[in-house]
Design goal:
The protein is built from two helices and 14 strands. By secondary structure, the chain is mainly β. It has one domain: Beta Barrel (Porin). A 14-stranded antiparallel beta barrel has the order 1-2-3-4-5-6-7-8-9-10-11-12-13-14. Helix 1 runs antiparallel to helix 2.
């Protein structure tokens, strides 16, 4: 969250027409949307999670639909939307389409005072692409090809990205490793327009709930976001699943930055399964007194 202000302001004032800078701003907007994730991005699961890691093979439903809405605090005033549709294609795996958009609101033109003098300044990014995933030799693999457009006032930059991801479980659900690229478009290890994600998840406790046979599983998680031109982000979390109908996720993120500043940010989510619907309510704890960001997601599974 703390990275968006200097980057957007700088690009708007000293060279928004430069395509590389605009692409970095677009990815930064997506990092702001990602503050509501309560699991490391590499370990995220679900149809909409394909935008973070395309290796999504956990569900065999004949059709999956997902919509997520994101709202940041008024001090940032960014809104986001992620929507996906996925379907199996036999031995070929699963295919899908995804669309996502994040933008800033209430940015208006000024001259020499804070009072607006013109129309609103458009600042947004969107991605539209196709995604595929399959289980190969016990490993979930996936790829996403997407077109991106980033708009900063009158300047616009377009690009194509191709992302790959993998996830593998060991010993049933005892241990899971995952990794993915995010908006990969250049062979660099310090490009602020892209990220590399990695994560590890281990089962720390399992048992039954009450007198029934409803299983409870608690998992510990660690993840990293790196290779993006500034210090790596580190994510530490716990997750609990109750009888596959209720899930709780908690995470604390140590955010890197372009300077030596270090920021800690918490996030949490509740997941509820009701028939063919799965509802997610998530929020982060806010940083620097800016307030919290929120995410509401609905997944629909048709079997």
């Amino acid at each position: 969250m703390q990275r968006i202000g200097p980057l957007v302001v700088g690009l708007l004032t000293i060279g928004a027409a430069r395509a590389a800078g605009q692409q970095a701003t677009g990815t930064t907007l997506w990092r702001v949307a990602g503050t509501t994730l309560a699991t490391p991005p590499a370990l995220a699961l679900g149809p909409a999670a394909a935008i973070w890691n395309p290796a999504q093979t956990e569900d065999s439903a004949r059709l999956l639909l997902a919509v997520e809405a994101i709202q940041t605090p008024a001090a940032v005033d960014a809104t986001g939307l992620i929507s996906t549709v996925r379907f199996p294609a036999g031995s070929l795996g699963q295919f899908g389409l995804l669309f996502g958009r994040v933008g800033l609101s209430d940015i208006t033109q000024t001259i020499d005072s804070p009072d607006p003098t013109g129309s609103a300044v458009p600042v947004y990014t969107f991605a539209f692409g196709a995604t595929w995933s399959r289980v190969l030799a016990g490993t979930s693999v996936g790829a996403t090809v997407a077109f991106h457009e980033t708009r900063l006032d009158v300047a616009r930059a377009d690009r194509w990205t191709i992302d790959v991801g993998a996830s593998r479980a060991f010993g049933g659900d005892r241990l899971r490793l995952a990794a993915a690229t995010h908006f990969f478009s250049s062979l660099k290890t310090n490009d602020p327009a892209q990220d590399v994600y990695a994560g590890i998840e281990g089962r720390v406790w399992s048992g039954t709930m009450g007198r029934g046979n409803n299983r409870v599983v608690v998992r510990g998680r660690y993840g990293m976001s790196f290779a993006h031109g500034f210090a790596a982000d580190h994510q530490f979390g716990l997750g609990a699943d109750f009888a596959k109908t209720l899930g709780l996720d908690l995470m604390v993120v140590r955010e890197g930055s372009y300077s030596n500043a270090v920021n800690w940010r918490p996030a949490g989510a509740v997941r509820i399964a009701i028939g063919k619907y799965r509802v997610t309510l998530a929020r982060d704890g806010g940083v620097s007194d800016l307030g919290s960001s929120y995410r509401v997601g609905v997944e629909m599974r048709f079997r």
